[in-house]
Amino acid sequence: MGWNSWNTFAQNIDEKLIMETADKMVDNGLLAAGYEYLVIDDIWSLRARDENGRLVANPEKFPHGMKYVVDYVHSKGLKFGIYSCDGVMTCASYPASYGREFIDAQTFAEWGVDYLKYDNCYKPRTVPGRLLYHKMSLALENCGRDILFSACNWGEENVEEWIKETGAHLWRSTYDIHDNWESIKKLLWQQVGLQKYNGVGCCNDMDMLVVGMYGKGNVGFGGCNDVEYRTHFSAWAMLNSALILGCDVRNMSPEALKIVTNRDVIAINQDAAGRQPYLLCADPDSDDNSQLQVWVKHLDGGDLAIGIFNMSDYTQSPWFGFDELGLDPSSGMALVITDLWEGKELGKFIDYYRTTIEPHDCRMLRCKLVPADGGPYVCCAF
Ligand code: GAL
Question: Of 236, 233, 241, which Cα lies nearest the Cα of 257?
């Protein structure tokens, strides 16, 4: 969990922005909610390396050097992340780490960096990406500092099959997000089938969150409303994605802040067991699951998390039978369901759950298994 500069600021990053962002992440409760890493993305360096082949922070943006900024971020209790690429240049044509992996890892370690986002632009076509991610991972593991490795090859080269071998801690499973509903829908749909590659210590990254951007900034193409941001956040949480904020946290709307700091929803994302969620077909009459998705996840300790996402443009009334969860009547069990956005226990349910969801809205439910004997029930057997 953290914040990354790209979605809103792109090239417009500097010492002042990073320090103000660090201050705000502490003051508005983001750090306390778990957003720990502050990551600068592309376009932080000079266009040339120094005479020793080392990367240099652009002195116009970072007049006191990178270590100064990193130290400040650390002094606030946050961790610091930086960006490079496995190719000869970053996506924005700044020097990248191909052939310089070990020296760059060394530089990052000397600056006190805690996280590296490693992108995939300008990579020689003849070299398998897999080897380049192996190489940087080895460089990081041997640089003398704990640096979280965030691989970002946009889901190419069947990355899901080999990324865990490299030691990466998170890996981008999708192309870039844009701040609009179509993009959120597309990325959620792209994730279907990849959820099973998630695991403790290495999570899928469905790209940075756009919650609270409202169409402003680098990827702010159109914007979303708060209901859509809540669904977006819930889906990323439910599917175990990294939760990296991308809005300007210095000026968040109260609603956006409320969404991203919902502790119950964050707990579903950060669940210690890190189990893969699975997809139910909520509406057996619907032949388009991308429009209405019901995801279920077994949580540490025995509860179930259920996320229901109405991705369609019309109101839907999804239901599912508990037999689809493995809880047929012979189990003798019922569910006590809590709605995590309402912050309210809905009661004890038996056999099935049905609800009505407005377009683009969702439900995030936490369900406790209890003996079915003895009502009262909110929903009863058919
Ligand atoms: C893209 C990457 C983005 C951002 C950008 C910077 O390849 O997916 O998240 O890092 O490069 O140029």
Answer: 233
> Do the beta carbons of residue 266 and residue 33 sit within 8 Å?
yes
pTM score above 0.70: yes
**252 and 292 belong to one structural domain:** no
pLDDT tens-place string over residues 245-276: 999 999 999 999 999 999 999 999 999 999 99
Tell me which residue has tokens 């309402």.
Answer: 342
What tens digit of pLDDT does each residue of 338-376 get?
Answer: 999 999 999 999 999 999 999 999 999 999 999 998 777
Q: Atom 11 (ligand 1): residue with closest C-alpha?
A: 91
The residue to mutate among 42, 150, 153, having the most atoms of ligand 1 within 8 angstroms of its beta carbon, is 42
Query: How close is the Cα of 359 to the center of ligand 1, in Å?
Result: 30
| Residue at 48 is within a domain | yes
Cα separation, 223 vs 206, in Å, equals 18
| CA angle, 322 then 324 then 343, to 5° | 50
In a shared domain, residues 252 and 188: yes
